[in-house]
Amino acid sequence: MRETSLDIKQNILLAQYTSWNIGGPADYFFQPKSLIEMKACIQWAADNRAALTVLSGGSNCLISDKGVRGLVVNLNKFTGTIVEEHDGRLQIAAIAGTPKSELLKIFLKYKLAPALFLAGIPGDVGGGVVMNAGVSEQMEPREFVEIVDWIRVLRGQNVHTYTRDDLKWSYRHCEGWQPGVIIEVGISWPLTPDDQILLKVREANTTRLKKQPLDKPSCGSVFVNPEGGKAGQLIESSGLKGTRFGDAQVSEKHANFIVNLGKATASDTKRLIQHVQDTVKSKTGFQLKTEVVFLGE
Ligand SMILES: Cc1cc2nc3c(=O)[nH]c(=O)nc-3n(C[C@H](O)[C@H](O)[C@H](O)COP(=O)(O)OP(=O)(O)OC[C@H]3O[C@@H](n4cnc5c(N)ncnc54)[C@H](O)[C@@H]3O)c2cc1C
Fold it and tell me: Which part of the chain has CATH 3.30.43.10?
């Protein structure tokens, strides 16, 4: 490996950077704090022929027990926002690693509607774009596509800008920006305050707490809702609530969540995912697809 002034660490366990608390080591691991450092680590990966994997909030990933070969770039320190009022809209330029909870705070301060769907979705702004994160409840807005104006993507050493309409958005997916690292996201919403917004956010949080096993490590919903069905209901009606492989368990509280009871491995979790897919298919005919992203060897 070539000498570098960057503080690139070796053999860092990735479980600690995920909401599931699962995953083996990264060969190389770096947390850029600026665009200059981001460019430098991408150059380092290119010079050393190391594969590059982005891990942001780590709230939608299942990382292999063997870990991730090459360089993992973690965005926990790649944060910051600029907030402006322009043309009757609140405009936010957010560095990709900014937690969604920071966006939520900004929207709450201005009493604006996006606060409601953002309440309770973990992870970062860039991860929100990649996953077109959102909620199934009828509310406006309910997905990232509705609040994003543009994104900036670093590909090699060059920055490319895409407007919302340049991209292809679908349920829990956004395409048209790859390959690269999303480094910044432009977001806006009309400055039309809703005096009830804080109350609504509190109610949404209470409902989530009642319905979801938020006291245990998970990645949220493991499966996307298939056309014409709800993954959670299909799993529950297939009798799978509570099914357990090792310390990975289909939540007793919300069947679309797989929780880590303590020492769940990626291999336990993958076997459980497969078991759920096979059982649901044979009992209901629905083929469940995963929402969670698999990273690593
Ligand atoms: C308790 C709980 C509840 C949840 N509820 C919801 C919900 O209601 N709705 C919902 O949609 N999701 C939900 N999720 C899932 C998850 O929070 C979202 O998908 C979130 O948007 C993922 O963001 P992240 O920063 O954690 O992404 P990560 O998990 O870090 O990454 C996800 C994928 O995006 C890629 N990626 C991330 N950032 C970048 C970047 N800047 N550039 C390039 N690639 C990048 C990663 O390589 C990976 O492939 C929940 C998760 C948990 C744990």
Answer: 9-74
How far is 133 from 257, CA to CA, in rounded Å?
16
168-185 pLDDT, tens digit each: 999 999 999 999 999 999
Q: In this structure, which residue's CA is closest to atom 17 in ligand 1?
A: 122
Task: Tell me, yes or no, if 172 is annotated catalytic.
Answer: yes
Closest atom of ligand 1 to 122 CA is 17
How far is residue 283's CA from residue 228's CA, in Å, rounded to a whole number?
16
Answer for the pair 69, 295: CB distance below 8 angstroms, yes or no.
no
d(CA 119, CA 50): 37
Q: What are residue 71's DSSP bridge partners?
A: 28, 52
pLDDT, tens digit, for every residue of 5-58?
889 999 999 999 999 999 999 999 999 999 999 999 999 999 999 999 999 999
Domain 81-197 annotated CATH 3.30.465.10: yes
> Which CATH architecture does the domain made up of 213-292 adopt?
Alpha-Beta Complex (3.90)
Ligand 1 centroid vs 293 CA: distance in angstroms?
Answer: 9
CA of 290 to the centre of ligand 1 (A): 13
For the whole prediction, is pTM greater than 0.85? yes
